[in-house]
## 1
Amino acid sequence: MQLTDVEKRMRDGEQGEPVRMAMEILIALGEIYEAERLISVRSAHLAGLSLKSHGIAGTEWAEDLAKQGAKVCIPTTMNVVGVDRSRDLKLPREWEKNQLRIETAYESMGCFGTSTCVPYYCGFVPRFREHIAWAESSAVIFSNSVLGARDNREGGPSALAAGLTGRTPLHGLHLDENRRGDVLFRVAAPLSGIADYGALGSYVGRMIGTRVPVFEGIKGPSIEELVYLGSALASSGGVALFHAAGVTPEAPTLESAFGGKRYDIVEVTARELEEGRQKLTSGKERKVDYVAIGCPHCSLNQIKEISILLGGRKVKEETALWIHTNVAIKHLAKQLGYVKVIEDAGGIVTQDFCTILGNPEALGFKTLATNSPKMAFYAPGSNGLDVWYGSVEQCIDSAVSGYWKS
Ligand code: F3S
């Protein structure tokens, strides 16, 4: 791989050990993917910051880097962590202590403790065609597809290496030729709400793996619906980029989305949507003891909607209602009175934290209801929870009644 003189000096340790180590990671990756050179990136987003993914060894590694004076040189945001810094969720103390060590280590490297998978909701919005190095599959697919930025699915170490050097290897989705569609999905089924978009992503993600789907027939989606479509594609499959004709910036037309490539066509009717929904449902007992919403983290509008849906009703005593978002959105939601409505009803609005990367199962929850396709996909394996998947209305009703109604 060709390196500039500056990059060679970084590789040789002129800027210190953390930068040398970061260059070693980037060069190794570049060689694996046959990148011809490194390119500059404007921002990085670190994931894998929960104790569940970092472990104690990873925590010590991060602390060691911080002690060696590692400092990021581009805006570098942090993904969700496993503890809510604003409140006591009654999680095991040892867990909380070690989780805070991780956050402290990265913040002392100059990373922004945004602790969210939706950095684009709090001011970190890449421009069209801008090269970035973000980890967190749902943020990657959103920035690639909806914003038209250029990003590969980075891992935690490669995103940190990019943050420390401002560089990433030129390969994959940084290149025009890899951004064209592979399969056309003609959506005939009407889509309404996040759970429908999640069901679509669940169906298509399983079928397409890591290829690029192009949708036709998606009309006037909200930003949140696109966020949840992307998160489902990225979790049920390994998709990092999708196009929606007439909706996303690289697909003003079907022709531009495929760029002259030949493609297969798949029809999506109500039957396929139902199949996607069923794959996210593993509930057996109708009794629900945990309702969680916000994977990816909720927008302000989602929190407002939940406060309206509660409509003065109370959450059932034996059922927990947890709404996940970040500190920026929560602050606004608090100022506008939505948090008070939810918490007066018996729910809570968490920040920094989420079900999959935290460990709410430590509190004994067994059956989850959610409208979040990524949470529904991972919760059985990562948290040992049975899952009911459906609309936000169904989720709020089940929080109030303690039972899931199909
Ligand atoms: Fe975000 Fe956690 Fe889901 S990081 S996408 S809320 S698993």
## 2
Amino acid sequence: MNYDEIIKNTLDEHRYMHTKGVVDTAIQLADKYGADRDKALIAAYLHDFAKPLGYEESLKLIEKFGIILDEETLENPELLHAPLGMAIAKYEFGINDEEILDAIRYHTTGKENMPLLTKIIYLADLIEPSRNFDGLEKIREAAYKDLNQALIISMNNTIVYLIKKNHVIHSDTYKARNFIIRNLHRGN
Ligand code: DGI
Ligand code: FE
Ligand code: FE
């Protein structure tokens, strides 16, 4: 399947460039940390496929695909594109690989005990070359030295951003952070 062609025809220029950046970065991280680069490529290409859809349309598709979502996700339009992207990957692109599906599903919030590919897509989404936000350089530097450290800095950054904006913090977001921090303290 020519994902590049598909994405170019579906996403606007800005989101296409972002997606290309995530693909390149995810492949680099996959090589560095020993993940499957073909899976990284597919997950990266499809991670924001549902992003252009509006709230009402997203809710309709979520119902159509029979996805059961928690209230915290349903009330946050920003979060819907991740589970919906997973369903589209599965039912429209025929992807059945659980690692790819998980990486798309949790690319926005993260989750407790993230598999390697999910961590890579989460981080690649934040540090790809066209991104720009305060604190990004520190995350980029850490990303190629220590994956878990980079994730903690990213998650701290996102949580502080959500607090400043007075947004609801999804429980997957803080559980993802707590899990990594607890495990670092245990030394593994
Ligand atoms: O889709 P992208 O823009 O590439 O990036 P993304 O999938 O990480 O989505 C970013 C948005 O998601 C950003 O506006 C912050 C929001 N977000 C991330 N975690 C949470 C969250 N929003 C809420 N309400 N709660 C969260 O835990
Ligand atoms: Fe996204
Ligand atoms: Fe993205």
## 3
Amino acid sequence: MVERAESESRKLLGRLRDTMASEAAGQERLDQITHLTADSMGTEVCSIYLFRDDETLELCATQGLNPESVHQTRMKLGEGLVGRVARTGKVINAADAPSSKGFRYMPETGEEIYSSFLGVPIQRLGEKLGVLVVQSKEAREFSADEVYALEVVAMVLAEMTELGAFVGEGAALRARHTQPVLIRGITGQEGSAEGYVWLHEPRVVVTNLVGDNPDVERQRLTDAVENLRVSVDQLLAGASGETGDSEQVQVLEAYRMFANSKGWLRRMEENIGRGLSAEAAVEKEQSDVRARMMQATDSYLRERLQDLDDLSNRLLRILTGQGNSTGADLPENPILVARNIGPGELLEYGRQLRGIVLEEGSVGSHAAIVARALAIPLVINAKRIQIEALNGDHVMVDGDQGIVHLRPDDTVVNAFRDKMAMQAKAQERYASIRDKPAVTLCGKTIRLDMNAGLMADLPSLESSGAEGVGLFRTELQFLVRSKMPRRNELAALYARVLDAAQGKRVVFRTLDIGSDKVLPYMKAEDEPNPALGWRAIRVGLDKPGVMRMQLQALLRAANGRALSIMFPFVAQYEEYTAARAEVDKALARERKLGHAIPESLEIGAMLETPSLAFACNKFYQEVEFLSIGGNDLKQFFFAADRENERVRRRYDTLNVSFLTFLENIVDRCATTDTRLSFCGEDAGRPVEALCLAAIGLHSLSMRPASVGPVKHLLRRCNLDDVRQVIHDARDAGEQSVRPAVMEYLRGLN
Ligand code: PEP
Ligand code: MG
């Protein structure tokens, strides 16, 4: 029985292949397929429904239904049995369709006389394209083999769609990958860019779907799987040697498990038995995995299915000979498109990229951190970008709005270019004041520093007009590596940073790991609430080995020059004194070894927890400087996770409660004569920066690209007036001072 089914579906596939190879136009091909399928399956009807848009299906070809209804009959996603197959991506096999739940009678098709219904989704790698249906008068349920045969036809249809087989005069389908697409994601890094798509992992295109000789195809599959196993073993050997029990090793171990899985191989061999080529068999299995992945709610299961998906891609590359590199050159103005990308890989592309679009990613991901350091516009969470984009496609990335225009039409192109021209003009304005101080109309000078973390940031010190580096996030160097850096490496790196700064102040913040920043080579702690967990100075004090190594590296890098060190996430006085004691110990050791001691050394703390705002006066007197880490401070003040898109923007930084809280800190520091600055992201937003300056924060550290816009605004404002506006809004019972401040700014024209 199985053999008969196998040879049946192989016969059907053979006939389909002739259609694929024929010169027929798009519609004619679809018609031939419905005819062939109905004939082979012994049903009166076979119909193809394809998506017109995301919500609408259209009858595009039929054998058996009223031919007049082709391109006339449409239905919404979820409507009728066909709509239900499309929505759920699941097969419906009904012996008595008219009495099935959701059946919809469509008089124009003459459908009511057909009793049994079998509908399968037409989808390619998780992308829904339409529904393939057979119907017959005889009330019967279709066998598993018949369902399989129809699924294979649907897969062939999906592949042919991908290859543009149905496009042409009077075609049923619009050409894929030719239409403009707008994708809404999330801002990872602001800025706009225009360029051409460069797929980090190009799609594998399977052109030969049908296998003539199953033995040959099975052998090809076996060889490819063997090849895959060897390569995974090699990767694993390399990774284990380097990094011990890292996450990467775990992923590779999952790969190895799947590569050796008998079930996986058996399913693919069965696909070959039914007439598919080896690569089509892998892709069919991959499509099934993707369908399961869409349904999976458990995150662990999803991750494993993701691994299996990656592995199938590798196998396809081996079988088709299409490597990661297609041999193509990076296009002009490349815009990188990827599902996700590691920081190391991103750094390799470096500044040649104009923009980056990621299907996944998060604001705090390492890729986002690197993109920010390189000042490359980045959109994350751009759903479907991998499916929609082809290498070389024209694309416009709006990092400010988190929008991607793929293959934009002329109107969008023109509007976008206007916007970019305006931004370029603004940049010119900022460049013209680069060497001028940020002096307000009331005569107050505000110090503007920049935040940094990678060597790639340092050229910005010159170009942005920043006075120094107010926050050097040392963890970035740890995050972009696959193993723990050594002391000498770090010392050399910090020395290069100080060299590049040419005497400008650089505030090195000691390692701030934990929470969203997890080192791949350190065992992650499984904590219920990592943002409130074992992170930053808490790790540094509990396990001081790395902190000591880092302090030594900093002292050696300074080699007698001035040095500023800042401890992250200090929540109470004692943490500061304990960390400070570590510096003293390190100093004593360097002295003993006869090494040069910094000509001046200042030790500060970040104020990122509300508790530190209320620390004793002694702390305020003792600490040499404080920098408010507004990103963390705000999340704890409002109890709103900075990584959670749902709540992240809920509370305005210009909320009167928060500004009042900050004002209290400013007052305390004024009383104790403590040097105070602000280095969270808000310092780089001009309106926020203006308000911070108005309430007395006269030293702000921000991303380099923000220095120009912030300085431009500050130079046009009177801080006394802005302070008055803020206080008036508060007295009037406003929740946020933003509307009042914006009104003031409009008044300035
Ligand atoms: C902050 O919390 O505001 C800050 C500057 O530190 P990070 O963003 O690195 O946590
Ligand atoms: Mg912080």
## 4
Amino acid sequence: MNILSIAGSDPSSGAGIQGDMKTFSAFGAYGFSVITAITSQNTKNFFDVKPVSSSLVKSQIRSILEDFHIDAIKIGMVYDKQTIRAIHHELENIKQPIILDPIFKSTTGGILQKENALSDFKKLLIPLSYIITPNVTEAEKISGNKIRSLGDMKNVAKKIQKLGVQNVIIKGGHFFSGPMVKDVLLDDKKFHVFAHNRLKIENHGGGCTFSASLCANIARGKRLKNAVDSARLFTVESIKNATKIGSGLLITRHVKGDEIESSLSHAISKFCSIDSISEHIPECQTNFVYSSSNPSSLKDVMGLEGRIVRTGEIGTVAGNLRYGGSKHVASAVLEVAKKFSSVRSGVNLKYDTNTIKKAISKGMKVSSYDRKEEPLENKKKDGHTVPWGISTAIASLKTPPDIIFHRGDFGKEPMILIFGKNPEDVLRKILKIVR
Ligand code: PXL
């Protein structure tokens, strides 16, 4: 996953382009940076700012776009009209989603966007964007309206959307009194309100952390509401983790993104590009799952809501990753994990005697069950076949299985399941038997 941030430099590295790079890394993404301005600031004071020339902003953007595939773009600090026009010129026809984070003032009060740049910001950058992420003060400034209630937040979100951006999230931040903070998302035509406990931590970098993590989640292909949810969670954790590095404000410290999700999504993309993998994808298609440690239910297992489907020689992902997204493969992993807790990941492949022979010849531990032997009582109960089959297959095992297969039953497709400690481990086993 490759993400471009177009933003200002913050030498204290809490916010701005340096903060964005740290957030992207936490999500396992590669971050590219186009610097629009250089600031000098620390956790107590803001000293100076100078924009980078518009020709240099343009050529930085071109240098990235002509060489790399980009999945999403974040735009942060844009100091003046010239910068805005340069960015618009280069991104006017871009297809990738743009996450626009309006940045008008630094946490310590420095001016990060000139007053006379606002009209170009509204006219040129807002319509280019997939989503804009103002806090209440920034939303007031863009819309020209005061926000005093949740209703005002919704009206202002609609007004900003009319400027030409598809989606708007207004972060309530610390502007309402009371124990809860509310964020309003206008997701195309639908409103979602998110609430969380007020964090009493004045920090430097929280805003950038939110928009950069939202960008990473959108780049991953998450649905907007889920992307916002994940970004909020990540930001709250990173703010709770803020540390006093300088003598002023605490600096946001990024926690790791959801490791389960990033390693699973990484393994799934590798799986899809294995040579002729489509020959190993069954009729019912493939799911790939990864559970949290000590899982207790399907909700603790992440899998695809859809499937990995055959498309020509390769596999293509249809659907999003979600906890509880898989039923069959996830329940097989849960059942193995009850006995062998090191097993947390699994995948299903098409049954083929050659694949089984190859696995045995490579020294893998292979076990099986016979669906025809399933007791009738068990068959009648929904969702009981897989746990029964897996527990039967592992009953006499002393060490975890690499593979469990069954040869099907009337109207039931035969199947191979491959298990491992994590998605990388499963992928390594797949590569041994499909090549
Ligand atoms: O957090 C917003 C922000 C963005 N970009 C730069 C900043 C700040 C806040 O201080 O300095 C460069």
